[in-house]
Amino acid sequence: LQDEETRKDYDYMLDHPEEYYRHYYHYYSRRLAPKVDVRIVILVTVCAISVFQFFSWWSSYNEAINYLATVPKYRIQATEIARQQGLLNKTKEKGKNRRPKEEIREEEEEIIKDIIKNKIDIKGGYQKPKIYDILLFQILLAPFYLFKYVVWYCWWIYSFTIKGREYGVEEKLYIIRRYMKMSQSQFDSLEDHQKETFLERQLWIRENYEVYKREQEEELKKKMAMDPRWKRYRRWMKNEGPGRLTFIDD
């Protein structure tokens, strides 16, 4: 009875002894209540998710680097840069300092990967992970991002709605991205010539985007119609199909 809430329940029980079901409920709810602070549980969970996020993104980034190191286009460029900087010559030592070929090959591979990391800007889901993108920092910085978005939105309304200024390249690409319902990372992963095509066709204008969208849908239908796998699938759906019962005599 040292706890104030428990004393209140006890006094209520003395005043209302007939409500024994209520007394049982309060008694066991307090006995079985978790002793750990919910805020600590939430903090630990968020931290665990953030750590998993960071290492998962870092693994994806390394996979992308390893793949690019096997692509002839990027490998030849990286090898040429390494030769110009004299990095590959340092690995080939002679005389007593001569090392095994396997060790030299591994060192050269690391040099090529380091050059690819520094020279190629990987975008999209395989970009280099940033600590500010994990869940923990996103939650901590949420008020700042909200304030930043409100300021940006007010500036947008003032500049283009009230003042009637013309859109710049960044503003046009932003509107196009919103029409396409793509995230910033997805849009950044597109090739530069694709973005130039969007600008040439003036897709920030809603009518032009609707025309472009219908064209893409028609092109996709044609590709699916010519794809042998889709032909086999449609043939199977027509002849067999899920849910169709056939009875074959033995």
Automatic annotation (TrEMBL):
Keyword annotations of the record: Chaperone, Membrane, Transmembrane, Transmembrane helix
The keyword Chaperone appears for this protein: yes
InterPro entries assigned: DNAJC25-like
A single cellular component GO annotation: endoplasmic reticulum membrane
Entry annotated with the keyword Cell membrane: no
Transmembrane segments: 40-58, 135-158
Signal sequence residues: none
GO BP terms in the entry: protein folding
Cell compartments where the protein resides: Membrane
Matching PANTHER family: DNAJ HOMOLOG SUBFAMILY C MEMBER 25
Protein name: DnaJ subfamily C member 25
Species, as recorded: Colius striatus
Classification of source organism: Eukaryota, Metazoa, Chordata, Craniata, Vertebrata
